[in-house]
Structures
1.
Amino acid sequence: MAQEEDAGKSGKVEPQYIKDIEQLAKNKQIQVAFQSILAQNKRNRDELIMLTEIPAPPFMEEKRAARFATMLKEAGADSVWIDKVGNVIALRKGKKGKGRVGFDAHLDTVFPLETNVKVKIKGDTLFAPGVGDDTRALVMVASVLRAMEEAKIETQSDILFIGSVGEEGLGDLRGVKHLFSDQSPRLDSWISIDGGDIGRISTMGLGSYRYRITFKGPGGHSWGAFGLANPQHALGSAIHYFTKSADKYTRSGARTSYNVGRIGGGTSVNSIAFESWMEVDMRSEFPGNLNKVDSILKASVQQALQEHNAMKRMGPALTVDIVKIGDRPSGELDENLPLIQRTMATASYFGVSPNVSRGSTNSNIPISRGIPAVTIGRGGKSGNAHALSEWWYDDKESYKAIQFALLTLVSEAGIVNP
């Protein structure tokens, strides 16, 4: 995830939750865990470099998953496995059987397999594609597990420590979609790590649809076959009709966006293309608005298809394929849910004003189903996410993000006092 959250708003924390978190933080085992996290600084940095240098594009996360599974085994999980879609799952059993909490970071990055992911180090700054988003979060998940083991913290609920696949791009949240399907263990609440500052808490899902639209025709020579219906021309018209109508619709109401991100097709300047395609991304805060701009897109495509078939002077008609390649549901959770209140209270404990926001993260899936879920930040300083020049900087307080994650997780799972 990169720059996919809105500005957010200040969260209101109920005093009782602040009191509860302050009391939990005084627990001797929690303090031992906090010290363990501090002591892991060098190890966490080394593991961040190691994991970053294992390429993990969507649908090709296997090598990174295997290494992350080993990390969770070494950290002390009760059992570790990789499910049928590639998610790494480590179970830490609770003592009271009171539900199950998912604690997640995503394995994949946006970069193709051939990308140079060698980490360059300048002082306390690491430079490499994917070093922040979301590799740093994977290190945090393992660090929290180690700290809980070293401090002998027992929880009431089971905890699943997760490295999920397919969060980015055409991965379309496939890992977390599987985790919330009937084929996986039930999850009662969900905490993802994906973002920057520890005060930013995503509790609202930004919905999106993505399409690959392909116009097809016979193709031919630009002079000798002139008069054939041209897929490139039809694509251009479709884009024009879509952007003109979508612009009008999105100027009012709930925030809604649209973007033609990629186009392609054709073989040469003097050939009528046999195929022309585009990939389109549309997003909205609310499902109704997303469905409306979706209908505008489809109507525009059909208008262009009919128009250019009517214009042809010879040959067969154009056809069009409309394939949905992404579907992220939207949704909102009540700010008064215990998980959200606990997370905001934990931010307050660390001296940060909580800010609740809308984002496009793994939490979209549980949020859309009304399951308590938050996405929290990775800490440190980072920049240029999704770019080859991505960097992550240890600002000497990045360990606090791990302590924040641990305290939030234990407050949700419920501590069992020795």
Note: DSSP finds eleven helices and 22 strands in the chain.
2.
Amino acid sequence: MKQDPVRRWSLPDRVFFACGACQILAFAFLKAHPQSGLAPLWIKPSKGFTGNQIVVVSEDVAFDDYHGFSS
């Protein structure tokens, strides 16, 4: 899949954001909604593991690139 740019770029937006663009969406959300009361949270893997996620959160709400808003 990575070798085929046509297939790679024709993925749905939800898949695109779920596979590495979380920081872009978190930044865009915070820029568009600065008074939302949400703050960025970077979830980093333990040493020896891969992958990470950036979401915006408050005490009772989270917004991420794949699920949208969650309680």
Note: Residues 22-32 form the longest helix (11 residues).
3.
Amino acid sequence: MSILRSLAAGFAGAIVLTALHETVRRLRPHDAPRMDVLGERGLRKLLRLEDLPQPDHATAYSATMFGDVLTNSLYYSLVGSGRHSLGRGVGLGVAAGVGGVLLPGPLGLGTVPSRRTPQTEAMTVAWYTIGGLVAGLAARRGK
């Protein structure tokens, strides 16, 4: 599989992941994962470390969404190609989801956005797994 096809598969997974997060957070505001909040916190933390000005909420949200799609696309593009791309996609998705639940606290970003309830934790892992599944399917289809 070419690099462009791998990137396209990764982009497909990232778009589905982002669409799931954004749709569910509007439908279930009480327990939906809020990875957008974690992203904004991370952005603001990096800007503070460099003593750079803080953007307003709309700008931070837009930058976070762009950064999420870009980094998730690159991450999911690791599915590569071949017979095992689907399995790699699922594995990458599960790993990202578990990381999304376990890492924000130790990184100083807080735990509530991805660990508010057991349902929040399950949705976090499920959405990233679905993104990986889509990337794996797209990679297989692009062969």
Note: The longest helix spans residues 3-27.
